Amino acid sequence: MIPMTRETIVKNWLGSVPLALSIFAATQVSYAADPTAGLEITSCKVFSERDDKLVQDCASVARKSCPGPGTCELPIGMNLTEGKDIDANPETWELVKVEFSCKGIAHLNGPHYQNDHATMTLACQK
Amino acid sequence: MHGIRAIKRRCLTGAITLALAAFSAPASLLAVESGADINAADYPSLTDKELGHVRRMVDLSRQLPGDWSGMSDDLWSVAERTQQFQLAYMAMALALVQHQYTPAYRELYKESMYQLIQKLTNPDIWESWLNSSRAGTAFADPDGADVQRGWVDPIRKYNIMLKGYLLQAGAMYEMLHRDGAFTKADGFTFRYQPFTWGNGPVTFRYSLSDVAEIVYKEFVDGNYEGVMCEPNRMFPACNQLPILGLLTHDQIFDTGYAADVMPKFARNWVEKQYTNPVTKWNVRHIYVKQGIREEPGTPVLDGWAGSWMHAWNPELAESIYAGQKEIYLDKFLNGEYASHAPQPGYANGNRTLVSLGFSQFAFMAAEVGDTETRAALLDYAERNFGPVWKDGAYYYPRSDDYAPDAEGNSHGVDTWSGNVLLALARLDKGGGFLKLYREPWGEAELNAPQVCDIDDITTSVTQAWYDEEKDALIVTLKPGPVAARRVKFSVQALDKDKSWSVLKDGHLLAQSGGKASAQGEVEWASDGGAQISTDLDQPHTFIIAARK
Prior knowledge:
By secondary structure, chain A is of the alpha+beta class. Chain A is built from 2 helices and 6 strands; from the N terminus they run H-E-E-H-E-E-E-E. Chain A has a domain at 40-122. Chain B has a domain at 2-41 and 448-546: Immunoglobulin-like (Sandwich). Chain B has helices spanning 2-10, 48-61, 83-100, 107-119, 123-126, 129-132, 160-177, 208-221, 240-253, 257-271, 299-312, 314-334, 352-368, 371-384, 415-427, 432-438, 443-446, and strands at 188-192, 202-206, 233-234, 285-287, 292-294, 388-390, 393-395, 450-452, 459-467, 472-479, 486-492, 500-504, 507-511, 522-524, 530-535, 540-546.
């Protein structure tokens, strides 16, 4: 082990500050929603975990729930599939994946399990 | 008028006018005054230690979100640790005190119960479910291939060790306070919001009745054999509390869930021998798919099951307790049990279980009414577990000193035991929870006279009881933990069409209807409420009684 002088320790510590600040800043960004960023849902899919050929497009329903441009909590239950279980098997769960854009930059939320008690938060970052 | 505004804010809703009149009661009136024949010692009250336990739980309920000071442990082998159990048990301990010691003083218990239940929806508590839901080959499913995808939602399926406790505590809160805090659609809200991993933010919202419906359905779908904790593992111990939650839900909403579950689950308990008739141990858990029973039992799970089972099936619980007492009691008191404490780092165990076994058993002994055993265990705890007083709170702080001393006594204490399990053993004088579940509050109890607007920093309420037969409210206040020369409290829900007397330590202080104390210690409101001011350099007992 190389013995560290006080100078080295200070230098190393200072060197780590920008990294720490950037992580902190990134954390802040994620929770600072920008209502003017023009959130727009570009894709919404409900698909079966058991059989990936079983897919239902839910974009139009999702857009009605989240017309933009600001942050939105999108219900991701059976509302997305007109109340239907798309693989008709209550033992298996379906997944929901939503793509959206903010000022043209693509974002993704999901997949999460389709769930009448769940909402997905869609937000653009500042 | 500051005091009257306080009454309006926290106690009364109607218009209030002050009615002060100079009146000093002649001593000759005392002999015939209503309430003078009431002896406060005839009513339940909290001892200093019992009150200290309550204060400990109140203090913990008030910690900031994410602050688990005094509640942490090293039970690394259990994914959820013990904090969620501590929270739920503390909420239930406060419910017990509310129901059986101070039913006419609610604001402190209501606020603290609410905060404790809210903390159960904190990510620190429930996010571990994502790991537990993934099962795995070693301890969840011996026939499995690998860990599974798992799911985030802590309520949707299994996880009875969280949602059963949410149901029990949330339903009990609603039974005692009826403010709909947990019955609304988002009563239990779980926000999954990590920035460093995962598939994006998602929120789960459930009402109390949603949880009850899901728990009931899982009992039915599982042939009333029990709801699973993790995938493929059913712990009989953890299935007691959801049954009690369903019972309270039935009492409030007339749903009939527990009425269906209780006899069928009890029958399964006997037929499937969840208590081994030979060894008297309960099975630890069952691998559902394989039908494999994990034995031998442990005092942790045996006490856990028996204490709560007694509240819904005392006959079965007491029959099981008798055999388990034979197994455990002497070993706790002579140190033999502690001598088997796992060493630090032991792969599949934890020293914490030594303390938990002792205190779970103590709680069970208390609930089944074995007063001798309860006293012996509490005495042992007093001698060996290093209880402390801190700012009016009384508890057994965590100690990792588990190795038995020369006399064979272990001094190790885990936080679940020190904060609440031993408190429950002291507060439950026998059948306390059985009574709580058999005598739910209805309109009469909810609308009975009560005291409020009490500064709990300066004032300890050790007794608050409304005697319906005598139409009298009996209240005892003790000073502290912070000293105050004078304190105030309000009385609400007195029938305004009646005339009331206020006695302090047996002496008439004031009467409603235009008569008040010369010192203005009692202010009457037009809707029947009152505000009472008193010195508090020593305990005082007040009796507010309807005049005949």
